[in-house]
Amino acid sequence: MPLTPTTDGTEHESGVRSYSRSWPVVFDRAVGSTLYAEDGTEYLDFFAGAGTLNYGHNNPTLKKALLEYLSGDHIVHSLDMLTTARREFLRTFAEQILEPRGLDHKVMFPGPGGANAVEAALKLARKVTGREAVVSFTNAFHGMTLGALSVTGNSMKRGGAGIPLVHATPMPYDDYFDGDIPDFVYFERMLEDAGSGLNEPAAVIVETLQGEGGMNTARIEWLRGLAELCKRHDILLVVDDIQMGCGRTGGFFSFEEAGIVPDIITLSKSISGYGLPLALTLVRPELDVFEPGEHNGTFRGFAPAFVTATEAIRTYWSDDALQRSTTEKGALVEGALNALVAKHPDAGLVAKGRGLARGLQFENAEQAGQVCREAFRRGLIMETSGPLDEVAKFLPPLTITEDELKRGLTLFGEAVDTVLS
To answer: Which CATH superfamily is domain 10-59+321-420 in?
Structure first.
């Protein structure tokens, strides 16, 4: 049968699409923290490409570097051949990000997306240790490919795999039992008990703040305890910083405040700075044991993304101005969310998050979605997260102005008041 034409072109697209269902308008342009529909309607963006646009849409400094690179007929696609763009990124990343933080990790380009970075991390951990099992955490999200799904908690997403997801064991994330059980008592008992049935893990993979899982924030002492447990039991520690890295929680890496040094780190989303596909798997030098070509991919290092990534680091990470700004704006959001909690004492609201990764959890999960829809009607883009979509989630660009942030918080507050009234 012939397709019925629509105004948005969705008659040609698979039903798997999701975000376009939440925001049913056709977007045309975007600048900074604002999206523009094709009819000119403005929307303030508290989504930022699910954390991919930490420096805003079409950041002018990054755009200038990108256009100059493209206009000079420089290399765009090169697999992992040596290029000037690649060299400049590696040098800049090492000198301005890794070395000041005392990290000597090697940089691996696994493929264009975050799931690629996770897959590389899991494969490498198994190769290094000779073990198969990986420990993940309740409500974790690490990607949609089979290996990444095996360490992801969401049952709906796992159900799409179509086959058993094996060689991974979930453990309770920080405060999963509301403080009733001491940290790691279950995990460590399983490790030490010969009758527990837990295979000796190659690695533990963790998010310091679970964005998709419901804005669950691990305490510093919990992260330190996890790092110490891994060290005692000779387990590699993998920190997935794909959504919470690149300054989202304050420091460039979300684990900096805890003072831990992961064995493997995954980055993607905002590492290119401009929304271009790029992913990194960072590995301690002694773990860099893949043979040449043992893990590769057609788009393992996209040159235009190197250019914008390099410019983003030079522009925003040569000092601590962005980090301080993110911390201050995060405190502003926290205050606004706490005010809503106090204003609606019977609604079971909980303010969550760190830096500019924030959320408001609703006791009635349906209300979170209602609030986000109400916010959209007022010109504010945001999504839900959590196993029941019970959290209204804030991921604005880090470069959002204070006035824009306050305006968005006002719109959100109005949406909450409308739904809860």
So the answer is: Aspartate Aminotransferase, domain 1 (3.90.1150.10)
Taking the CB of residue 185, how many other CB atoms lie within 10 A of it?
11
Q: What is the dihedral of CA 360, 254, 188, 137, to 10 degrees?
A: 50
Rounded CA separation 3/356 (Å): 43
Which pLDDT score is estimated for 3? 57
CATH of 74-316, one of 3.40.640.10, 3.40.109.10, 3.40.50.2300, 1.10.1040.50: 3.40.640.10
pLDDT at residue 17 in the model: 87
What is d(CA 257, CA 87) in angstroms, rounded to the nearest whole number? 29
Q: What is the pTM of this model?
A: 0.96
Q: How many angstroms separate the CA atoms of 65 and 63, rounded?
A: 5
pLDDT at position 1: 46
DSSP state string for 203-266: EEEE-SEETTTTSEE--HHHHHHHHHHHHHTT-EEEEE-TTTTTTTTSSSSTTGGGT---SEEE
Q: Whole-angstrom Cα distance, residue 187 to residue 220?
A: 18
267 three-state secondary structure: strand
Q: What residues pair up with 353 in beta bridges, in sequence order?
A: 358
Neighbour count for residue 94 (Cβ, 10 Å): 16
Report strand pairing: 391-394 vs 357-361.
antiparallel
CA–CA dist 370, 344 (Å, integer): 16
DSSP label at residue 98:
I
Ranges of residues in the chain with a pLDDT under 70 are 1-5
Query: Which residue type is seen at 46?
Result: F
What's the pLDDT score for residue 4?
61
Structure confidence by residue, pLDDT tens digits, 187-220 = 999 999 999 999 999 999 999 999 999 999 999 9
- What are the domain boundaries of the chain? 10-59+321-420, 74-316
